[in-house]
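Researcher: Here's a chain I'd like modeled. Treat it as a single chain, no partners, no ligands.
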Amino acid sequence: MIKKLANIGTRRLIGMLLGNVLLGIGVSVFKLSGMGNDPFSAMCMSVSTLLHLAYSNYLVILNSFIFIIDITLGRKYIGLGTVVNWFLVGYVAEFFIWLTHILIPAPTGFITQFPFVIAGVILISFGVSLYQSSNAGIAPFDSISLIMNERLPIPYFWCRICCDGLCALIALFTGGLIGLGTFACAFCLGPVIHFFNEHISKKLLYRQAKV
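Model: Modeled as a single isolated chain. Structure tokens:
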């Protein structure tokens, strides 16, 4: 991790930090839509409610357990970005949930809710793509898809769909808000993240300076 930190570089560091902020904003946008959060956040919100814990605090605890898998099977994915996502994204999301509910009237009806779902998918996908492509460390949950892709003959976006689908089921059975936004993420995050990886994030973070 220390070696990775020394070799991150300014562009990749900014990409990692910006990616995590966008991820937190995306969670708040889904919450505002009232049509369900992304599967992982929906699961965390529903389970944390059952346990009478704040979403952000529960996220830190859950990531601690997932980190055991990371350090066992995916140590190369651990870095500064892992720590930033692990301990900060939940609090960033909670801040923007509070802020958006103050600044933006809650949408009512499909016509006004659906654009927030689309915005949430884009924000979360781009955020995940940026901090993954920065190679500065992957969030505990997001590394699971990468570990599966590495160890199984399955494309990354199918691995992501499997992880998100499982989270959606857990959220459903624990009384979470499951809606169009949840299913959109379960089936769209993998392909959209893959698109951002290949066409935007890697080009932004690794663009060679002209000489």
